Amino acid sequence: MVIIVVLLVLIFIVWPIAIYNSLVRKRVRVDNAWRQIDVQLKRRHDLIPNLVESAKGYMKYERGTLEKVMEARSRAVRAGGIEEAGQAEGELSRILRQLFALVENYPELKANEQVARLMEELTHTENNIAFARQFYNDMVMDYNTSLQVFPNSIIASLFNFQPKPFFRMEVEEEAQPPSVDLRI
Known about the structure:
The chain is mostly helical. 77% of the residues lie in helices and 0% in strands. It contains six helices and no strands. The chain has helices at residues 2-56, 63-78, 82-103, 107-111, 113-148, 152-158. It is rod-shaped, with a radius of gyration of 23 Å.
């Protein structure tokens, strides 16, 4: 009789607590993974004005592209949610690629040590964003799957656990970091 009571206690008290705690841990991991992306995006946003300012003197005839970069950066900084951030960051990546391609036409600009350093840091940051995005999306997939499987779905609906969105850049091919050729 005691064994049956212990089993019932395990089934009706301990088991739901274990599922609830598991879901909370996974949700916290997703939030932490998003913070890692956010840190890298902020770093990218901070590097762009320095790069544009350094390039202005050399790229007098490309003023429109430089303005587009700064406008896209402003939209990315103001982006509210994860989905909006994905669209804005995708657009920013696309315009940065155009800027990097234009830099190829200005040998003096490519030779500038500060510009080369900024472009290298930006490329490194783009790689970090790609890794952080992959990690975040893996965490979201694990969390969202946990919400849908039985019996977790019962606990998830009782405590209003909501699925998290994946972080997608506007165009997947745009999610690739821009390539930079720093050879002179």
